[in-house]
Design a protein that fits this description.
By secondary structure, the protein is α/β, with parallel strands linked by helices. It has helices at residues 30-38, 42-48, 86-101, 119-136, 167-192, 200-211, 224-229, 233-239, 293-308, 353-363, 380-386, 398-410, 444-453, 484-494, and strands at residues 2-7, 17-24, 27-28, 59-63, 72-80, 107-111, 156-161, 217-222, 247-254, 263-267, 269-273, 313-323, 334-337, 343-346, 371-376, 391-395, 415-417, 435-436, 461-465, 471-472, 478-479. Helix 9 runs parallel beside helix 14. The structure holds ligand BES, manganese (II) ion (MN) and zinc ion (ZN).
């Protein structure tokens, strides 16, 4: 999809379709009023018929409005004006895109009601519109033999602003929105691919492909032999049960000054998690192909950095492996030595994410990071605690936690902080090793983060548990691309591209 911004009077636009908002009950938005006036009250006349009264979720396509240059006018219900929020605006955008996808219009001019008048709100609203419409047109049909693409897909969206002086902000919103949207779409594609295609080697190749797009992005892949030399005993123990070789994917984006410390993003890249010898129950096990969504979100975020040429240094680290039962797999009771030298008693082989992440966290030390954020589909307990709306956040640094919470709010990709108190650390005591890999009953998301914290002591570090937010189950089964928006927001802010 092609996006652009334009300033002008809604009633004077020429396009296959003009999208306007109507509030409940039958209340025209400002832009709709101007079109109504130009067409001698045509919209008022139509609304009086009662087919559309402006409730959220409603849409009405009109043709050949008198005295206008648009072939179609699409009215979108925006709900009560007093309740018109960012979420409602996003819903309106999604509804418009789905109506347009079924129509023959290949271009549309969007003129939905403004939320507020301040510049930054305009930026957010337009950026949201780009991200939302791209999400709404997302399709995953790589694995269908006969993909049914829409016959006349929407090709161009123009976002109309009323004032020329807002054009610069609008252009910035579109540029940022497009980079975030393509990062999300890449992360979704990788997440949706099945485990037999999206293996650790596949992920490594995807990283290499991204590296070819920019001289600022260098890709290094560590093979098992090199990980052995680094004594990554925890990561390698997970991979031992799999025929696919593990990979440690390192993506170094140098957009900032040489001496400025990098932001390091670590993403769990477990391409299929059967649980290992502590095997998972069969129902729903297919969803464990999504266990690499943390890694996918790191790749998606780096793709946004590349696209925007962000002036900042960012390093992505993705430990990637499968977790399968096998004669050579980890067994409950096995003790392994991590790269940090700390020993781990593996009481449950299904708690493998922390085993591959802990060595990756130790590996980060060589980059002297400004901050380290790991992203992982780490615990079912996080789904129980927060459901799918919030990503779980745990951190050893309050300022970093606040920065992440605020990036989550601004990008509508929200996180919620859980405590990382010392009291929970005791749950990881082991009779035989330095620690166990599970924390027993209660606080599963917290004890998983406690485990990771023992490998992140040298960093300002935060952990994002995306077990609930990374994909949808049920009829809408599919990856969400979260938290690409949150992470890119944080990087846009750190690199002073937005205030
Ligand atoms: N990948 C899973 C976490 C997960 C479970 C994500 C369900 C999304 C939905 C992780 O590797 C895992 O299996 N965690 C265990 C930990 C337990 C054994 C302490 C879990 O959450 O059950
Ligand atoms: Mn597991
Ligand atoms: Zn897992």
């Amino acid at each position: 999809m092609n996006y652009n911004a334009k300033a002008g009077d809604p009633s004077k636009q020429r396009a296959p379709c003009l999208v306007l908002g109507v509030f409940a009950t039958r209340k025209l938005s400002e832009a709709a009023k101007s079109v109504d006036k130009a067409s001698s009250g045509f919209l008022t006349h139509i609304l009086k018929k009662g087919d559309m009264d402006g409730e959220t979720g409603q849409a009405l396509m009109l043709y050949d409005l008198p005295n206008t240059l648009c072939e179609r006018v699409l009215l979108i219900g925006c709900g009560k004006q007093k309740e018109y929020s960012r979420a409602k605006h996003n819903e309106a955008v999604a509804k418009a895109i789905s109506e347009l996808t079924g129509s023959h219009a290949i271009e549309a001019i969007f003129c939905l009601p403004a939320l507020a008048t301040s510049e930054s709100d305009l930026y957010t609203q337009l950026r949201d519109a780009v991200i939302k419409s791209s999400e709404q047109s997302y399709r995953f049909d790589q694995c269908k033999s006969d993909p049914k693409a829409p016959k006349r897909p929407l090709k161009k969206v123009t976002l109309l602003v009323t004032d020329r002086k807002n054009l610069k902000t609008a252009q910035k919103a579109i540029t940022h929105g497009q980079a975030i949207a393509s990062g999300i779409s890449l992360a979704k594609d990788l997440g949706n691919l099945p485990g037999n295609i999206c293996t650790p080697s596949y992920l490594a190749n995807q990283a290499r492909q991204l590296g070819r797009k920019s001289p600022q992005l260098k890709i290094k892949i560590l093979e098992e032999k090199q990980m052995e030399a680094l004594k990554m005993g925890a990561l390698l123990s997970v991979s031992r049960g799999s025929r696919q070789p593990a990979k440690l994917i390192i993506m170094e984006y140098k957009g900032g000054e040489a001496k400025s410390k990098p932001v390091v993003l670590v993403g769990k890249g477990l391409t299929f998690d059967a649980g290992g010898i502590s095997i998972k129950p069969s129902p729903g096990m297919d969803e464990m192909k999504y266990d690499m969504c943390g890694g996918a979100s790191v790749i998606g975020t780096l793709s946004a950095c590349v696209e925007l040429k962000l002036p900042i240094n960012v390093i992505g680290i993705i430990p990637s492996s499968e977790n399968l039962p096998d004669g050579d797999a980890n067994k409950p009771g096995d003790i392994v030595t991590s790269m940090s030298g700390q020993t781990i008693e593996i009481l449950n082989t299904d708690a493998e994410g922390r085993l591959i992440l802990c060595d990756a966290l130790t590996y980060c030390e060589r980059f002297d990071p400004a901050i380290v954020i790991d992203v992982a589909t780490l615990t079912g307990a996080c789904v129980v605690a927060l459901g799918s709306h919030a990503t779980g956040l745990l951190s050893n640094n309050d300022a970093l936690a606040d920065e992440i919470l605020s990036a989550g709010n601004s990008s509508h990709d929200k996180a919620w902080r859980l405590p990382l108190w010392d009291e929970y650390q005791k749950q990881l005591d082991s009779n035989f090793a330095d620690m166990a890999n599970i924390g027993g009953k209660g606080g599963g998301t917290i004890t998983a983060a406690c485990f990771l914290s023992r490998f992140a002591k040298k960093h300002k570090w935060a952990h994002l548990d995306i077990a609930g937010s990374a994909w949808h189950s049920g009829a809408k089964k599919g990856a969400t691309g979260r938290p690409v928006s949150l992470l890119t927001q944080l990087l846009l802010k750190r690199s002073k591209q937005i205030s």
